[in-house]
């Protein structure tokens, strides 16, 4: 199969992303929500245009995403979130979250959208929804010299366990209902 | 400049897209809305990982986008639209609009989002916002053997001219306010 991927970059942290993609597909098919993974931005430098066949990109580079992994629409609400997975047991590092991603999420919050992190501790098989506000406390503490990771305990206390269902392995809309829509964070 | 693009594909219909990107940047900076171009999806087949430097994508292919060009958040509303430009004077062809893009837009409409086309007749320097409903009439007619393009006249009658401003060359949020939010299409 010529199109088989050899792309380790794209496969990093693949399990959570794959589970969310499948969940989103289920949400789409069951007409609950329209939420998609944004494509990874790529800067194309060189392309071949062979006769009678598809253009072949010959040189390109991954770009840092300026926003988040996923966005879409649920019950009239704009949904925007970032997914992070770690093999650590005690904490998740803040190092691979970018400043402009956090700025983006602050904007989403300000303009009336629903924004959060989905964080998986893969060794414990536990996945949380962590709203932006408790995340920001740790993020801002880090910027003032605080710890460079968020403890699992903090996430367990300030986040919400996302239920696993066979059809929706990361059934996060259940939590969105409870926390943001019925819970009154969004009015 | 090594990163200079030779990418004709990416430059196709570049003027409208560039003007919308600039407009979105202005909307973002002036805190009016958070709307971004979605990256073009690319299927990566082969990547080099040189020591001490960035991964180089050596073989990749453009994929058909399964959704639309732009989405985001405005005054709490989910916004999702497709931009099309033509050098024709009389009509815009339906040929480069994909079935799954239209299906996507129907879903956005159904779930309470605001969705539309931005269509530019570049020779006349006129840009319209065409809501989904009048577009669908022409789209469905085409599927039943009707014409394969939308006449300029039809767009002028059923769409709305988007004002040009120096800072917001395609000031479409003005039209979104009038048509969808204050105009009662969204309640
Ligand atoms: Mg991620
Ligand atoms: Mg387009």
From TrEMBL, chains A, B:
<feature type="compositionally biased region" description="Basic and acidic residues">
    <location>
        <begin position="4"/>
        <end position="13"/>
    </location>
</feature>
<dbReference type="Pfam" id="PF03838">
    <property type="entry name" value="RecU"/>
</dbReference>
<keyword id="KW-0540">Nuclease</keyword>
<keyword id="KW-0255">Endonuclease</keyword>
<protein>
    <recommendedName>
        <fullName>Holliday junction resolvase RecU</fullName>
        <ecNumber>3.1.21.10</ecNumber>
    </recommendedName>
</protein>
<feature type="binding site">
    <location>
        <position position="82"/>
    </location>
    <ligand>
        <name>Mg(2+)</name>
    </ligand>
</feature>
<keyword id="KW-0378">Hydrolase</keyword>
<dbReference type="InterPro" id="IPR011335">
    <property type="entry name" value="Restrct_endonuc-II-like"/>
</dbReference>
<keyword id="KW-0227">DNA damage</keyword>
<dbReference type="InterPro" id="IPR004612">
    <property type="entry name" value="Resolv_RecU"/>
</dbReference>
<feature type="binding site">
    <location>
        <position position="67"/>
    </location>
    <ligand>
        <name>Mg(2+)</name>
    </ligand>
</feature>
<keyword id="KW-0963">Cytoplasm</keyword>
<comment type="similarity">
    <text>Belongs to the RecU family.</text>
</comment>
<keyword id="KW-0479">Metal-binding</keyword>
<dbReference type="InterPro" id="IPR011856">
    <property type="entry name" value="tRNA_endonuc-like_dom_sf"/>
</dbReference>
<feature type="binding site">
    <location>
        <position position="101"/>
    </location>
    <ligand>
        <name>Mg(2+)</name>
    </ligand>
</feature>
<keyword id="KW-0233">DNA recombination</keyword>
<comment type="function">
    <text>Endonuclease that resolves Holliday junction intermediates in genetic recombination. Cleaves mobile four-strand junctions by introducing symmetrical nicks in paired strands. Promotes annealing of linear ssDNA with homologous dsDNA. Required for DNA repair, homologous recombination and chromosome segregation.</text>
</comment>
<feature type="site" description="Transition state stabilizer">
    <location>
        <position position="84"/>
    </location>
</feature>
<keyword id="KW-0460">Magnesium</keyword>
<keyword id="KW-0234">DNA repair</keyword>
<feature type="binding site">
    <location>
        <position position="69"/>
    </location>
    <ligand>
        <name>Mg(2+)</name>
    </ligand>
</feature>
């Amino acid at each position: 199969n010529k199109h088989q991927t050899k792309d380790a970059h794209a496969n990093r942290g693949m399990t959570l992303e794959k589970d969310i993609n499948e969940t989103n597909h289920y949400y789409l098919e069951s007409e609950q929500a329209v939420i998609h993974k944004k494509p990874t931005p790529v800067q194309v430098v060189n392309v071949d245009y062979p006769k009678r066949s598809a253009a072949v990109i010959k040189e390109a580079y991954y770009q840092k995403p300026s926003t988040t992994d996923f966005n879409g629409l649920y019950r009239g609400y704009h949904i925007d979130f970032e997914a992070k997975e770690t093999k650590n047991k005690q904490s998740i590092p803040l190092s691979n979250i970018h400043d402009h991603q956090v700025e983006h999420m602050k904007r989403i919050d300000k303009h009336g959208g629903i924004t959060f992190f989905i964080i998986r501790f893969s060794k414990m098989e536990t996945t949380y929804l962590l709203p932006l506000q408790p995340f920001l406390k740790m993020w801002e503490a880090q910027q003032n010299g605080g710890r460079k990771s968020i403890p699992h305990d903090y996430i367990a206390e300030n986040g919400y366990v996302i239920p696993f269902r066979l059809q929706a392995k990361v059934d996060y809309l259940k939590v969105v209902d409870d926390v943001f829509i019925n819970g009154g964070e969004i009015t």
